[in-house]
Amino acid sequence: MKMLRRLLFWLVGVPLLLVLLLQLYFLLQILWWTQFNPSSTSFMRQQLSVLQEKKPDAKLQHQWVPYNKISNHLKRAVIASEDDSFVDHDGVDWEAMQKAYEKNQKKGKVVSGGSTITQQLAKNLFLSGQRSYLRKGQELVITYMLETCMDKQRILEIYLNVVEWGVGVFGAEAAARHYYGSSAATLGPAQAARLAVMLPKPRYFDKNQGSGYLQRRSELIMKRMNSAELP
Cross-referenced InterPro entries, in alphabetical order (predicted)? Predict the structure, then answer.
């Protein structure tokens, strides 16, 4: 009996303890970021590693700017394009996730996540870009931690400062300078809409800026921007 208990401890107790410690680590990091800005994210470090495999001295384009130094046009465009119920949901849009699940079932693999802005931030901060239901589960836990510890404005501020916007380009300020030679604060409606549309496939659109889809989708987002509610 003693041997069985010891075996259960190593097979069940230790892995469970490690999972709980990992969640505690995530929570402490999030609590720190309520007051202090993250200098990098898991996803940023992964992408830097990829770039440095080809060019050892490669660096990311990234510069943090406060919420009030980011154009409201960009905030509205991103919400309209990525998560139009951002200010209302608790971190997860279950209807969007259900649609994504049904799409994945038809395709026979994970091709869509139905992620909100908060979920995308959770993934960028801590996780890999690998698609799996296990990763999605961890993403949900981190998402609720973010929504519990931070208000919507802080979540959006961090998201806009760390999200990928091109090859080695992260955050609104770097994106504005990379594509328009201006600051994030001075982005106009058309520029903001175009940047928002790039978010699902930023590296692709960085290399294909003349894409017809990019132009058509940007025009649609411009029409939706005025109805996007800011936190």
Answer: Glyco_trans_51, Lysozyme-like_dom_sf, PBP_transglycosylase, Pep_trsgly
